[in-house]
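User:
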Amino acid sequence: MSADSEQRTIRCLVAKVGLDGHDRGAHVIARAFRDAGFEVIYSGLHRAPEEIVQAAVQEDVDVLGISILSGAHNTLVPKVIEGLKEYDAFDDTLVLVGGIIPDEDKEDLLEMGVAEVFGPGTPMEETVEFVEANAPER
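Assistant: Predicted structure:
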């Protein structure tokens, strides 16, 4: 068996949480993840934090990418992280945030456990390489 055939597929949930209705970025990253060989699940729009947590747990994802442009990241992301912790799934899930996040909020998100924050214009290759390098081993 070759090394390529032994490599596992990284499972990703791309999530739109809250009332944010702009999903172009989420579709772009979902496509980039798919093209990189990841298995991608898309949450659809307007999901509550609890719905995102349930989907991540039920789908047993390695990566949870939260796309948020509404400015509610300081309220919604902590709820998602708390929910993952309640299900004992946080340590096994790489949590990423993408969207328009002010610099002063980025550090707070990282301190609460977000692995990385990707802003507009981040090259897709950079995001894919980060996931490949940091997705939890299962």
